[in-house]
Amino acid sequence: MSRPETGASHSAYGAAGVDLQAIETLKERIGAFAAMTHGSEVVKGVGAFAGLYRLRNYKNPVLAASTDGVGTKLKVAALLGHYESLGIDLVNLNVNDVVTCGAEPLLFLDYISMGKLDPQIVEPLLRGMVWACREVGCALVGGETAQMPGLYGDGDFDLAGTVIGAVEEGAIIDGTTVREGDALLGLPSSGLHTNGFSLVRKVFNVDENPAVLYQSHQELGHTLGEELITPHRCYYQSLAPHYSKLKAVVHVSGGGLPNNIPRLLPRDLAAHIRLDAWEPQPIFGMIQRAGGIDDREMRQVFNMGIGMVLICGSDAWPSLQGSLPDAIVMGEVVKRRDDAQVIMQPLPG
Amino acid sequence: MSRPETGASHSAYGAAGVDLQAIETLKERIGAFAAMTHGSEVVKGVGAFAGLYRLRNYKNPVLAASTDGVGTKLKVAALLGHYESLGIDLVNLNVNDVVTCGAEPLLFLDYISMGKLDPQIVEPLLRGMVWACREVGCALVGGETAQMPGLYGDGDFDLAGTVIGAVEEGAIIDGTTVREGDALLGLPSSGLHTNGFSLVRKVFNVDENPAVLYQSHQELGHTLGEELITPHRCYYQSLAPHYSKLKAVVHVSGGGLPNNIPRLLPRDLAAHIRLDAWEPQPIFGMIQRAGGIDDREMRQVFNMGIGMVLICGSDAWPSLQGSLPDAIVMGEVVKRRDDAQVIMQPLPG
Questions:
Q1: Is residue A210 within 8 angstroms of chain B, CB to CB?
Q2: For residue range A312-323, what is the model confidence (pLDDT) as tens digits?
């Protein structure tokens, strides 16, 4: 990474749109933010060529790695000037990906890219990332804030994050032990999380008419904007104490339930989901009505109220129930009969 | 990460600018590319929620992590339609950052973001990444290809990469053992590497007049375009066998020699560099003349021909010389006298 220290002002480079002085000032603030996430494991943090992190207490460590961005949720957050929540999203969605393996998130690195460095955007983004990193004990050890004149319009930016976690080789959760009769549990999402935002922007005509974001809706209990930028829920703290009881953990991201569950389900099994086991939040109905979208597409683009699906033995459920009070029994694992690996239907009768 | 499998065509989402079918097809190709970098350490690769990698043969492992992008070199590469070299850049510049700690690069993850998914861009980018990963034994275990309609113009994209490496805690190279009298060695760059491109684009008016990229220059021996997109040299293979002899390794990225060397030099020491120890490549003179840039700024923006600075004991140099045939003795470590930690001057007399 390169957040280098710089000397005096740079006329030619400055004229080309790259402000090294602004980078220097920002770099100091980033270092101070990042230090708030550092324990004794961190040998070197932000500002070094590479972040260095002691991997302790693992016998046969397997590293779990995820890189992802927030999609065009960033366009909505930018219209509202609400960047902290986007920083939280960036950490949480990657943490949830390493959680699917039963891993502990350890390191986080960010990439922020914009036309001209804007501390009014970068600082709240980083505050959100730091806040979310601290929640899960993840160290922000590096990143890059890139000035890319000519690539981004005013106020536009892009954002990517990487989480590295670790898990004992013998404790990897990977779905291979899933059997017929296992329980399918759902943990509620906090709303849209970070998927389907290009469709949402189009359906509500957000880009052309940002004022819609400030309209209050009785069924939401707040404005559309508040609903849309609700941070992606992080499931690590809820799930980590129960890793040993879980056979599969599915992060319901782009592709929804029908496309994410098969990523971890053995080929001869299918997930039988009872759609009346839970009620999707009102925002999903609003999107569907506004866009005239059919049920099938809704389920393939959005999480429909379930952010994480857990599969465990039916005997494990009673002991989990007390610790995961908002978990929903959404169905069970059945023998696969045809192409479909995810069967969604209302309860018969 | 989320490169989910998808089902049938998606009309509303497609109309909003996100082509899930195209993602699916591309995802398969990405998986095949990525598998070319996988050894038995890789438990799960691209397509899983998180990449899983067995960390073997370390007693007290310290993870070394770097995230960085290629800057606006991507604008030049895009004008030339030369994406492979950019993929190579992305891997190499991050590998070089973890090399500064004496680490072995293990994992790579990429982030590619564009308005509408363009396989003609994504595939050669990934080919370049895979090629560079294979060169250093690094596994491409994940990433994200994001479609961001409304954020990028046609053909525009952004790019970030993350390398995770590991080093034994006792073998970290960090500059703390550097002493007065130590030798400063330089390893030649392959040209601009990935720094200063916003200035270069402005100086040669590249955005407005891309034809300049196709002009041949006798002093370069080829076209300006060929010169500019030469891949960032990777130093891992040259340096790994000699890690134990090196006291500090400095990646000369943004900020040049004067701002990168102090990142690893103890505060009471300074680097005395003899500017006539090497000759910067002709491209640097061309940029300086075309932009009317003073020497000081040139050295703070560009690597000026030196991609990596090594510091070793003066007694270690003879044994290194044979294995690093292109290393240049560029100066030595001296006591610090004033503010300046990097003193650059011609040899007296």
A1: no
A2: 999 998 889 889
